[in-house]
Amino acid sequence: xxxxxxxxxxxxxxAHISAMDRGFLFGDGIYEVTRVVNGNPFRLDDHLARMDHGxxxxxxxxxxDERARIPQLHLDLLExxxxxxxxxxxxxxxxxxxxxxxxxxxxxxxxxxxxxxTAAPFKPFTELHAKGITAITISDVRWSRCNxxxxxxxPNVLATNEAKKAGVGTALMVRDGVITESPNANxxxxxxxxxxxxxxxxxxxxxxxxxxxxxxARDLGIPLCEVAVRDTDLSRLSELFVSGTTxxxxxxxxxxxxxxxxxxxxxxxxxLQDELLKRFEQGH
Length: 284
Description:
- This protein is α+β, with helices and mostly antiparallel strands.
- The chain has seven helices and 16 strands.
């Protein structure tokens, strides 16, 4: 497998990053995962706009030339890995770079950021999209800048592990009595025919697929309210689903051991799944 690291394409086993890299030592960096359909990175401009926002918020500066190359690097990486047909994902990570000695303060003067990219084949979870998954609720113990897609993912890892230990498909995180996110996706719920989702804020990542679902709901005439679902309203849900780059629109049919609605994928999730497939095929 060919990867990209700091200006060069190389075999994955040849790619080495210094142990003094701040991404390794501090989680000092951001990342993006982009879905690819038949060689076309889906909504790449939106992913890179979010990347730019994250880099700016963390004070990490790519050179103008390196930043300008990133869209083409996605295409080159797909070509080198023979992933121009079918589906794939591209992972991009930017850390602040390598600095010595280890210190919490940003390097002064600034060091060159580390830019790393990989591509891999991807198979959608089509069966689970139809039958849905189970989930549990857990406390959201993440920091209050969840809107930045940083590589500090330990709370997400622990939440995913809690779901795995419970024998369910995912966990929904609860902060101050409301559902925020799953470890790797945004959350939507339907109550009395209205689609609800946590509003854009520092407490969630505004997912690219979330943005797409919001647009699709409006285009399809589905009533939408960007207000979080409270834990006290869970019994009123007729549908519940998550959205993400690798989850697409994924129905949750059982939560904390109780069925959601009639315990099956609902019509809102189905309509959004169908529309998302169309947009994948159209490339936008």
